[in-house]
Amino acid sequence: MIPLGLLEPLEDLLRGILDALHSIGLPWAWSIVGLTLLVRMLLVPLTVKQIHSMQNMQRHAPQMKELQKKYKGDRQKLNEELMKFYKENNINPAASCLPLLAQIPVFIGLFYTLRTFSKDPPSGDLSWLHFLPSVADKAIDHWSGFVLITVYVVSQLASTYFMSGTMQQSQRVIMMVLPVAFIPFILNFPAGLVLYWMTTNLWTVGQGLITRRLIPKTPVATASPKRSSRTPPQDGAGAEEETKPTPPTQPAQPRRVKRKKKARR
Fold first, then answer.
1. Using 50, 70 and 90 to split pLDDT, how confident is the model at 196?
2. What is the pTM of this model?
3. Looking at the predicted structure, is the pLDDT value of residue 231 above 90?
């Protein structure tokens, strides 16, 4: 649990950014969207590491599956072998979680910032084209909150689809169920907080689409078989030459020597 005293500077920073965005003419809801985009742009270096880590995991996925099959009954041995495998192949499985972990303090800080909005509302209209009555109100207090929650769930499922390529099937199912299981808790969140999380999910979906379109698929690493003197060559030409049957050799015919006829006397 993060001590609340450590969040005060973060709350002041978030409140200052929201005030600055609102001062240039943005409604409070759009100010939260702008804050979300600023946070995600600052997290681009971690996102790049996340993408590289996922590509590296996908490249070595067949080898990791072989280890899982080999040590299926020994969980401790499996973890030890996976750690060795990660170290040998320079894989950091925690890198895929860095952007999410970096957003947790911002999420909590924005939660308490929006609580101060409800106690001490800032100057100006809190409405956003009469869609959100207030970014500080609970999502359950207005019908627009249910629209935000619906978009949140759909965007969360889509972002999980793009970011769970290296997960096991059971882990992927859990990640798909969690957004629906969180709905009872999200109903009591401030609408602005749901808007923040919905926007960051949409960013993740767009990032996944761009990544799949621009970045080529990584080749899957396969263990090369050990060659010996009896192993046939792998190139096509050599294989064709060996597969062609050699014609049987004809036995050499004995050479006939013609004898000269003796002249008659």
1. very high
2. 0.70
3. no
Which long-range CB contacts under 8 A does 9-18 form with residues at least 24 apart?
10/105, 10/106, 10/109, 11/109, 11/112, 11/113, 11/116, 13/109, 14/106, 14/109, 14/110, 14/113, 15/113, 15/116, 18/113
**Cβ pair 99, 46 in contact under 8 A:** yes
Distance set, CA 106 to CA 32, 95, 132, 222 (Å) = 12, 19, 22, 41
pLDDT tens, 138-186? 888 878 778 888 988 898 888 877 766 555 666 677 778 888 888 888 8
Gap between the Cα atoms of 165 and 240, Å rounded: 39
Question: How many angstroms separate the CA atoms of 163 and 57, rounded?
Answer: 12
Percentage of residues in the chain with pLDDT exceeding 70? Answer: 68
Model pLDDT, residue 191: 86
8-43 pLDDT, tens digit per residue, is 888 889 989 998 998 898 888 888 999 999 999 998
CA angle 166, 167, 172 (to 5 degrees): 135
Q: Which tokens hold the place of 53?
A: 């880590």
Cα separation, 114 vs 193, in Å, equals 8
Contacts of 38-41 with C-beta under 8 Å, sequence gap 24+, read 39/103, 39/106, 39/200, 40/200, 40/203
Tokens coding 9: 């500077």
The CA dihedral of 161, 166, 170, 171, to the nearest 10 degrees, is -70
Rounded Cα distance, 42 and 162, in Å: 21
Write the single-letter amino acid at 226. Answer: K
